[in-house]
Each structure stands twice: as C-alpha cells, then as structure tokens.
Amino acid sequence: MPSSVVFLGPSLPVEEAREILDATYLPPIQRGDLAQLPRENPPAAVGIVDGRFLQSFSVSPKEVLKAMDAGIRFYGSSSMGALRAVELARYGMIGVGQVFELFASGELDADDEVAMVFDQSSFRPISDPLVNLRIALAEAHRQRVISEETRRLFIEEARRIYFPDRTFKRVLQSIENKISAQEVQALREFLANAPDAKRDDAIQLLHEMKTYLDTLNA
Questions:
Q1: 3-state secondary structure string, 126-159?
Q2: Strands 73-77 and 94-96
Q3: HSE-up of 61 (CA within 13 Å, CB side)?
Q4: Contact 204, 96 (CB under 8 A)
C-alpha cells in the first residue's frame, strides 16, 4: 500500500488506529511539521486529526497548501484537522465527520470548540472539548434523557469554563443544583458512555484514507 502519515493524539489511541490503517503515526501537528515530510517519495496521503494549540504555534493553512501542491492528498477531522479542512476544502483538502460538518455549515466557528488539554507523553485527554459536549448533550436530549432547557443550561455553563478546566463532570457539578435530581442522575448515567464525536470522526478519517490508498494499490 502507498505510504501515509497521520497526525494523531488524544482523539484516538494509536494502537486502535493501527488496527484500521497501517500508517506512520506522528504526534499532534504543530507549525513546521509538514516541512519534515520527505520531499522525495512523499506520502500519498496525510491525515490531520489532532494539533497543538497552546503548547506551540498551530500548523498554518499555507503549510498545508504547500504540501498539497507537492501532490499529497490531505484529510482532516475531529480537531485541528477539521478546522484546516474547512479553510482548505475549496483547494481540495477533504473534511471528514461531524465536527467538520458543524464548522463547514457555520453552526460553529470558534477554535475553542475543539480545544482541549492532554498529557504530553501519553496523549491522555485531561479536559473535554466543547464540541464533544454539544454533540453528546444533543443526543441526550434526542433520547429524552434531559429537557431542552437542561441541554441549553449545560452548554451555557460549559462555555463559561476555560477550556483546560472543562470536563463533563465539572459542568454537571456546576448545574446540578439548577435541575432536578432525576435529570442529574439520568445525565450522569448517560455521560458515562457518552458519544465521542472526535473519536468517531478520527475513525472515519482512517477508513476514508484506507479506501483511497486501496484504490491506488489496485
């Protein structure tokens, strides 16, 4: 199969990613990383899932465009990848998943929606991205676990919390005296197995990359 590179961090463990796509997995992307890709025999496809926000400068659209000009096919999802895919879709970058669609439609427009903090060595998530909370709470409301009023209250409270400190648990603790005990318990049980949009989108990106690479190998 032609070579591929995926920049991946807290959205999905690399061990699980390898079960879907045999690729070179690199840590969350930051400015300058794309310049390190081989100029001779570059990868056929690059997937950007996670990127660095606070720790260093983010990868710029111009860096991605330059690599695309070299013939590399780019995919983006979940986090930094979704943001760059929205900006560069007209130039051929392929956006994948729910998070990309929310930004592409204009429903979301703030980088803070996907921002989170994670352990620098293990990439274990320490906070929960706002976009995951939005999608999970929308599903909880769809399943009638909570009322629309509670959904709005939860998201409003989540937005007030600075993203490094934002977690499902902390938000729920902040509003539990404003909603019924029944909803608190129902929501706590739901959130124990809440949908993880960034994870789901990363998995979808890997499958789409594999499908493309398989066609090159056919």
A1: CCCCHHHHHHHHHHHHHCCCCCHHHHHHHHHHHH
A2: parallel
A3: 12
A4: yes
pLDDT tens-digit series, residues 154-192 = 999 999 999 999 999 999 999 999 999 999 999 999 999
Q: Yes or no: say if 84 and 76 are a contact pair by the CB < 8 Å rule.
A: yes
Which pTM value belongs to this model?
A: 0.94
Burial of 140 per CB tally in 10 Å (0-12, 13-18, 19+): buried
Q: What would the two tokens of residue 183 be?
A: 């909803």
Amino acid at 139: E
Q: pLDDT digit string (tens) for 108-143?
A: 988 889 999 898 889 999 999 999 999 999 999 999
Joined together, the tokens standing for residue 91 give: 């130039």
Backbone angles phi, psi at 9, to 5 degrees: -145, -115
Residue type, 204: Q
* Span 4-111+197-217 CATH architecture: 3-Layer(aba) Sandwich (3.40)
Measuring CA to CA, how many Å separate 31 from each of 17, 55, 107, 133, 149? 23, 11, 27, 28, 41
